[in-house]
């Protein structure tokens, strides 16, 4: 039983690396968005031509990135969405909404002080974790039946 | 041609009333979440019993609210998502993600200083407006073919 | 906003009547299985001819009943499944599984001593109630935004 | 022609092992829920933190288990559901309902004295067997065309 | 509870009229193919121009008829397929296959001497009747819960 | 039996009026894109603000128009696509592709000298007509069973 | 580009072998029903127990066979349905109807004197051939672009 | 992460070869229609028999080609549609419409002077490029996260 796992959300800490490293003995195939912030912001104009207007600059990049992110979410069995400490992170919540509507198993990785504003997202999740280690433990349990 | 429009997001200003009032001569059926903040927060425990733990208090309410919000989104032709000035508003972005995944026509109502963090949501939208009046104008155009 | 509600499960008490009576001022359209136990058991052979073998006797009836129950579940916005005190009630759990797989909003009406064996069904539900009155309150809240 | 088979239901006898052993020469990929009863009951709190309330204790575990069981059912070609002699087994009937709604080929493994309460589940099945050996024979026939 | 019923198959006897007449007090909306044999055979060339080749003559008509028959089947809750005494009737079996694949409730109306060659179609049906009266009784039972 | 018909394509002749007038006694609900060329081209900037770049000017309008056209196509039973004598008409072919992928009954209205370049579109259609009168005759036949 | 091809229909001549042999150098994965007539007729009772009534004898077998045939059709890219000279062959037309409803590419292999009664099936097909050799040529062209 | 990319549209220049060559180090599986113009035009009659009428000559070929093109589009993650300088190219726009309706990531490769008539197709695309090199850069970025 191979599990395909998409790792969505916050790109400023090493939570993806922790999960991937912790799951290295499991039959899991991970995918994720481009996590290079500058490349992600500029891919549209870098490839398809400059835009003087910031809206269209961002629009072109968001659409090119969507080729990757939608593929990742649509092909995943499990979508893990991480909410970090900073920024608006509406793209993370947007991905969670897509995952829920597509019937994916949703795991949310968030911190206690975000509990109230995340209640609708949590309500759609099959697990709410606070630490990357817990996500590894879930994957390990789901695949092997073994508890930590 | 009747249009079913779901009005998602910010509940602290009268943007819904403006749109509904402005569209009163159009063949539109509006739906929306419960916009009474206190009722929305407490519906779960008020009906199904108290929870000492805030997580489960919120969880019960979020699920009861989901009965209404998912019905609204799944049955809509158009989903309008309003991002206001304050709060995390992850439920708004979550609704936008659901709408996009379900193939609904998405209209985002947001302000210019939120342009960058909303770029992924904007990229999935068929229109990005700043004023409720513009949403009315879109509905009027879509239904009657008339421009303001 | 009309809600279509299918009332599945236990047929030996008046819980359906309580919910329908309590919701008489709401914009709800209820449907349910045939609750006449004898008719439900014998409809197949009564219409399509006797079967000496009990398996096929039951099989013919179960399939004729399925014409009605699947129509009810597939067309519902909300599926309420009631587990009573007695009997195996596997058809109730089967209906709950169908409702979950079809993305319906599931409300379970069950008693506390069934909590553990119903945990998988509860986990798929948006509300777990113990009294028909609570289902009425949920419907009232979902439609009107008003708490009891 | 590889067949993916999910083995749902009763976890107290060796029926899964009998089927897997009997099918060892067939091109079948089996999956199943976690069958360690204690791990299955406690996985939620063991990984995500204790819950004093038994409802939420069970709820957390049921959701973590759902990551595995839904993956198994959704990816299966055939879902075998075994009803044993004891317990409520509503999760087995729930899985059967999901399998039916998702259009999976459903095989029910049950005993004669459960015939009447299982009639709705049997009516949705493509085969009703009493012995694990018969499930092996079905798999063998479906894959090789050979009868026992 | 309104039921939409599509009446497919044999067009040489008055079985449709019997069912419609017998169901006149029920909340059923019937649809059917064009049962004027000559019009059905020639509609393509009559409207879209002659074809010297019989294959294309028939092809044009079969496609124009498909506009009606697919609409009927796709919008039905119940598809009744009648196999008569004569002719190949492959279009009836084709309609039954479409109905089965679309998850419609299938009722087959056939005679005993066709039992063996219809076994695959019967296996996909929720009822196998021999007389139009029985179809009326099923519709009556499904809608009212009353047995004959 | 009501039929919902979407009239896509060429906007420079009165073919839509001919079909609507000719079908006035039939139970048909027609929809169509905005056929005011100037409004259709400028709706985006007129409502949502000017764009100096022609690409984004057109982009905004095309997306606002898509709210109406996708609603029309997705809700139609039949999609009629008219190819006229002039212009690229890629939007007409695009609509035909959407209709085909969504399983709609497609009727193409085109002229003989476009036969070869339209062969892939014709191959997906249930009827290929040259005159609006023929579309009326098809609708009349499909609804009433009567030939002209 | 691998093509999955299901070979449905007549089981009394070697048409399947001809197609498989002719396609041996192509990247095609074939599947088919059990073509051993006796095994196919008796698989149900041989595995699941005798039935004195011929209807249920056939019913049990038809359902066991459906596990294989539905898997084959649902997983195919192309469904080839062969109509032979004899028998009612309603299962072949039923399979064609399923294939059409599921959006599979349908190839019909039939003889000229069956043209009229097969017109509805032909109208749903992407190719109508008379010889197994032509099916091989289609597969070869579709995969390699080469004509015979 | 393997990407399946279908290359639709213009067949008179070497744009496909440029993209495939430029992507040779990426984990991409390309598919495309038959690009031999003569074979594509004549495949129907070459395999299935002559047609004196040009419409049916083209019809037979278009349907045989559809076996390949629909397989390519339905199985693709990304559909690239190239509009060249000449011809009507309605099949390209038709493919783009299918891709959009099926939720594929659409990349359009077109030239500036076609901007206005392609606005509806562009509005459905996640990227609009002018050079094959840009498509390669998008694929490289989507797969590796690296910008040119």
From TrEMBL, chains A, B, C, D, E, F, G, H:
Organism the protein comes from: Boseongicola aestuarii
Protein name listed in UniProt: YtoQ family protein
UniProt xrefs under InterPro entries: YtoQ_family_protein
Tree of life domain: Bacteria
């Amino acid at each position: 039983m191979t599990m395909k796992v998409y790792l969505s959300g916050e790109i400023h800490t090493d939570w993806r690396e922790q999960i991937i490293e912790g799951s290295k003995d499991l039959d899991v195939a991970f995918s994720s968005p481009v996590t290079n912030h500058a490349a992600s912001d500029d891919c549209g104009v870098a490839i398809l031509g400059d835009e003087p207007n910031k809206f269209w600059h961002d629009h072109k990049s968001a659409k090119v990135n969507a080729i990757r992110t939608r593929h990742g979410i649509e092909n995943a069995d499990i979508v893990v969405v991480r909410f970090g400490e900073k920024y608006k992170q509406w793209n993370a919540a947007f991905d969670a909404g897509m995952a829920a509507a597509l019937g994916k198993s949703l795991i949310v990785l968030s911190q206690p002080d975000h509990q109230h504003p995340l209640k609708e997202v949590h309500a759609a999740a099959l697990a709410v974790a606070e630490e990357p280690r817990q996500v590894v433990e879930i994957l390990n349990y789901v695949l092997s039946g073994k508890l930590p």
